[in-house]
Amino acid sequence: MKENQKNVLSGEFFMQGDIACAEGAICAGCRFFGGYPITPATEVAQQMSKRLPLVDGMFIQMEDELASMNAVLGASWAGQKAMTATSGPGASLMMENLGLGIMLETPCVLTNVQRGGPSTGLPTLASQSDMMQAKWGSHGDYSIIALAPSSPQELFDLTIHAFNLAEIYRTPVLVMTDAEVGHMTEKVVIPPQEEIEIVPRRKPTVPPEEYLPYRVAPGEWVPPMAVAGDGYYIHTTGLTHDERGYPATTDDSVQWPLVQRLIDKIEKNKDDIVMLEKDGLDDAEVVIVSYGIAARTAMWPIQIARDEGIRVGLLRLITVWPFPDKQIRELAGQVEGIIVPEINMGQIVREVERCAAGQADVISVPHPGGDIHDPQKVLNAIRKAVGREVEE
Amino acid sequence: MGLEMNGYRLDKSIEADSESEGLVEEIHGHHPMDDLLRTERLPHIWCPGCGLGTALTCFLSALRRSELDLDKVTVTSGIGCTGRVAGYVRLDSFHTTHGRAIPFATGLKMGNPELKAVVFSGDGDLVTIGGNHFIHAARRNIDMTVICVNNFNYGMTGGQAGATTPIGGLTTTTPYGDYEYPFNVSALAAASGAVYVARWTVLHARRLERSITEALLKPGFSMVEIISPCPTGFGRRHKQREGLDTMRYYHEHGVIKHGADPRETDIKLGGAIIEGKFVDIDKLTFLEQRARRLEQVLGKRK
User: Fold this and answer.
1) What is the assigned CATH class of domain B35-298?
2) Which of A:63-82 have CB within 8 Å of B?
3) Inter-residue contact A181 to A156 (CB < 8 Å)
4) B49: closest CA among B240, B255, B200, B188?
5) Is the dihedral of CA A126, A132, A138, A144 positive or negative?
6) Coil, helix or strand for B255?
7) Alpha-carbon distance A204 to A227, whole Å?
8) Domains and CATH numbers, chain A
9) Digit-coded pLDDT (tens) for A18-54
């Protein structure tokens, strides 16, 4: 499949979030989508089914999400930039082979347009309740990158960024959006293709006889990746494997350095990976820490509170995983209270509490999903945090 | 010392060093398939009497006979004893998760249509946990050769029942005999749309090799079912303590019947094993269907 960029869009559009995700993927060079329909992520698949054939890409609707995730991994090992998109129940099925992607160190992107759960839950309504699944959903120890867009524009931008991070760190990257952002239609600006930064796959420079698929050069975290058909005759396995990609399962001599590197390649590069939006933090007495649509819902109460003379800041997590421990720890030393609104019953707030380590009050503003927060509840939490009386 | 065996030359030398801890035996042999194997990974993990060595040899011979460009041949396996094949072949090879070899290989083929996708796995992997992927890849007529080694049980985990275990079969999870109706792997492939379906026991190695060659060269979804002994898991509970006992059983119960209706090839405990090429038809592959449809609809736009 030769590269064909002539049908990549650019300009200003009034665009749905899910569509923006698909268009972002195409801009990033994604030429394979394997997926399974599920509300509220279906529009991503629909758009890809329409658009990929126009850019010499391949769309295939698989029989389930287990197959979808595997097809994405296979396509990546065939040299393509590849993605899938799903929601809660589908994400649960994908967890098995997300783990395979992590173990094989396979660049790819998984967008989760979150909906209310558990189980079938609220198919058409939003939640942010898969945030811990994103972190811990597959078995075993690993680290993951997860981004949280709060608008269709950001869903476009962060999908491109997710593909780049996937190539840089040779890992699946999750785009953790939700039904509100996925189904929201807003202005999306797509810059000219030449202005979009795209990270290509890093291939080995040594001849096949010198290539070890999992040998990492000194000072690096990630091995270059030969793919099927390159003539390198690679082998890879979901078993714990040595530098040759061969199983090494009799003791922990390979397990330890392998798992450590899978974690370190992300955690030790936090400074490069973590993206935050900061507003009014310098003199804040109380701060909202949130992400995605919940952070956007907090904008109104922040404004009201400021009008009331409360010095309230916002720290929006654009990258949720790896978690910005250092920034939260520093923030907790500067403020009285940290308020964490999220559309779940309190997931990321646990991470905030861990990092705050008692330096500041950490207040959860939970929501089980189905709607966005009533902004009044966030406002009340802000008022309470600074000791003002609140009428419930 | 040279030794001729089945046309293959074996150089065998035994070195005994009485001063070392035990007898050091080194067998240096040049096997004609060595360059297709990751010999540094040998010896393999398979039990004495297992049929997988024969199945793998037949595959490699067929691969050579097919004259496919080895740079473009991929082998994908799932989990289990047969799943280890991917780790022994000197080709681009992928050892994936349980049951998921077919969708992974689908991604490989769709990601780069120049690749030849071979899936080499067991019955438990392909038609029990991975049954859904098996039937859908056949339905789509994905360009893929699936080699399914059927030993009627889960060997690696210690001989449990699977979807292929015949009624009455004794396994570690059917201690009173299996009472579930089994899948007939060949009939399942045929019913799902496979364009090439053959079944052979490992006893019929040359016919098996020929069938795998045909399957490798067949456009679309081809499937070869290999009936294979598992003395450790299945055989010893069915009066076949050694692999050789099972081979004798194949000799006595194998019935070659090319063109047999796959629906009439069920394998029952103690019954005949009907073998042969059951299906060999032509129809457009997934990629051909796709190209034709897109050309019809988008031809002018592209």
Assistant:
1) alpha beta
2) 63-64, 66-68, 70-80, 82
3) no
4) B240
5) positive
6) strand
7) 10
8) 11-195 (3.40.50.970), 277-385 (3.40.50.920)
9) 999 999 999 999 999 999 999 999 999 999 999 999 9
